[in-house]
Each structure stands twice: as structure tokens, then as C-alpha cells.
From TrEMBL:
Pfam families: Lipase_GDSL_2. Residues 59-279 form the SGNH hydrolase-type esterase domain. Gene3D superfamilies: SGNH hydrolase (3.40.50.1110). The keyword Signal applies. Residues 30-46 have a biased composition (Low complexity). This is SGNH hydrolase-type esterase domain-containing protein. The keyword Protein transport does not apply. SUPFAM superfamilies: SGNH hydrolase.
């Protein structure tokens, strides 16, 4: 999700003393303000777990899977990723997988801050070379977080890209389980944070104008704009569910992340959009619940014998 808030943070620090010197301890949605400028994926990380059986997790998506703005510095912080992070405060999906399966888990975080669904083909191609045990996918917020509604990625283009990527993984890495997260409804941030002056200041710097511009406005055009964003996200989620549903080793969260509404403390103090550590822990819990309860992932979760 693209944001240019570095300068805004300096300004806000001058106004308020220090903005978010440390993110709150502990979504948003969404998978998912918009992601930062594109950043390179991290090197492999090993989640702490027992020796013996080895597993690989590949993380696909955008800044929502990069721990963006969740640490004590601006930008990516993959150690607190909901999917592949190693920080105990988050208890990521990869960490929980290692504990459940009695395995040592290596994570390749291929997600890129700022990515839209158009980047998914590249990420999926790199993922299949790893032949991972698990792939996690959360992408789509940047496709709606644009300057105008007309700039949002069409449902047809989103559907085509997601379907092609999931089919590619199924064809070239057939033993891989894929966990597909639904997309957070970014308009759900409005009742949570629109009344907060700091949040309004940060949102005004850009990044998700379609959802967060004039956040307290009740003018018909503002209401219509937000409704269009929500409708497009629901269409994306339907596309994800449809593309995943036809594949035997693909698991969705059933819309759990889409329905999740964060608290103000679960949003990064750097931008009041991305999840804080507390928000990322909640996200990890939602997605792990979906994975661990799905019959499609039963073999993945079997303890090492």
C-alpha cells in the first residue's frame, strides 16, 4: 500500500513532540493506509521450533505481511509478520505451525510493501521454486487504496491474477497448502480512528484516498466513494474464495479478516492504518484458526512421528 508519510511524521513530531517512537505493544485489515514504496523481500528466517522435521513457509502479499510500521522504526519489520514473523508477541502462523507439527520452520517472505495484485505472478513464480509446505497470501488493499475510485484495480483483472497465481502454485508445487486471507475492509477504520486528530493528520498525507479522504464527511460523494471501496473489496474476496475453493489444498479464512475491526491500539501509531504488534497478533490468530480447523490442511499439521 503506497504511502508517502515520512515527511508527515517529521511534521507531526514537531507538532506533538514525538509520533510513535514505539509502536503500541502487543487488521488492520487488511491484508492488508496503503503500503509503503516497494521494498525488497527479506532473507530466509527460521522460526524457533524443535529440531528434526523441516518445513518451509512462503509469504506472499503486500505490506500487511511485512510488519510494516509495526516496530519502533518506519518501514518493514518482517520479524513481526503475522504470517512468518519470529517475534513471540505476534506468535505468527509459521511459529504456530512449527509448534503444532514439531518442525523447524524456515520462512521466505516474498511479500513486497506497495505491491498490488499485478505483482502476484512474480511472487508465485518465486514461491514454487521453494516447493514450500505452506504459502500464505494476503493481497488487495493496494488495489483499492488509490487516488480515485476509477483507479482501483478492476474485479476482472484482480480475479484473473489471483486465479492464475493459485493455479500456478497448485500445478508446480502440488503438495503445498495455501492459506488465503480475506481482505480487510479499510473503510472499517473510519469509526475506529476518524475521530482521532493524529489519525486524520496522517491519513491526509495520502495513501488510501479512496477510503480515508475527508474521513468525517457525510457528503453524498464521500459516502458513495466509500461504498464503492467496500463493494470492490467484497468482490475481491469473492474472487479469492472462488479461486481457492476449486483447489484441494487451498484454505480460506471464510471472510474472518474482512469482518475484523481493529481497536485504535491495534493500529500502528506511525500511520493509524497498518496493524500494530497487537493487531498483527490478532491477525495471526484469525488466520491460524482457519488453517488449523480446515481438513484441507490436516496432513500439514500432523506432528512429526
Amino acid at each position: 500500500m503506497r504511502r508517502t508519510i515520512g515527511g508527515a511524521l517529521v511534521t507531526l513530531a514537531a507538532l506533538l513532540g514525538c509520533v510513535a517512537c514505539t509502536a503500541p505493544a502487543g487488521p488492520a485489515p487488511a491484508s492488508s493506509a496503503a503500503s509503503a514504496p516497494v521494498a525488497a523481500p527479506s532473507s530466509p528466517q527460521a522460526a524457533p521450533s524443535p529440531p528434526g522435521r523441516s518445513m518451509t513457509v512462503a509469504v506472499l502479499g503486500d505490506s500487511l505481511s511485512r510488519g510494516y510500521n509495526a516496530c519502533s522504526h518506519f518501514g518493514d519489520c518482517p520479524s513481526v509478520s503475522w504470517s512468518g514473523g519470529t517475534d513471540d508477541r505476534v506468535d505468527s502462523v509459521a511459529t504456530r505451525l512449527g509448534a503444532a507439527a514439531g518442525a523447524r520452520v524456515t520462512v521466505r517472505n516474498l511479500a513486497r510493501s506497495g505491491a498490488t495484485v499485478s505483482d502476484l505472478a512474480r511472487q508465485a513464480t518465486e514461491a514454487v521454486t521453494l516447493q514450500p509446505d505452506l504459502v500464505t497470501l494476503l493481497i488487495g488493499a493496494n488495489d483499492v487504496c488509490r487516488a480515485t475510485v476509477a483507479d482501483m484495480t478492476s474485479t476482472e483483472d484482480y480475479t484473473t491474477a489471483v486465479s492464475a497465481a493459485l493455479q500456478q502454485i497448485a500445478q508446480y508445487s502440488p503438495d503445498t497448502v495455501v492459506l488465503v486471507a480475506s481482505i480487510p475492509d479499510v473503510t472499517a477504520l473510519l469509526p475506529v480512528a476518524a475521530g482521532n486528530p493524529t489519525a486524520r493528520f496522517l491519513w491526509a498525507q495520502g495513501g488510501c484516498a479512496t477510503a480515508l479522504q475527508d474521513p468525517q464527511s457525510t457528503a453524498p460523494d464521500a459516502v458513495e466513494r466509500r461504498a464503492a471501496v467496500s463493494a470492490r473489496i467484497r468482490e475481491y474476496d469473492a474472487a479469492l474464495a472462488g479461486a481457492c475453493g476449486v483447489l484441494p489444498r487451498c484454505v480460506t479464512d471464510g471472510g474472518a479478516l474482512h469482518r475484523y475491526t481493529p481497536t485504535l491500539q491495534q493500529l500502528s501509531a506511525f500511520d493509524r492504518f497498518h496493524p500494530s504488534v497487537a493487531g498483527l497478533r490478532e491477525l495471526a490468530q484469525l488466520e491460524w484458526r482457519a488453517l488449523s480447523r480446515s481438513p484441507r490442511a490436516a496432513a500439514l499439521l500432523e506432528p512429526a512421528g
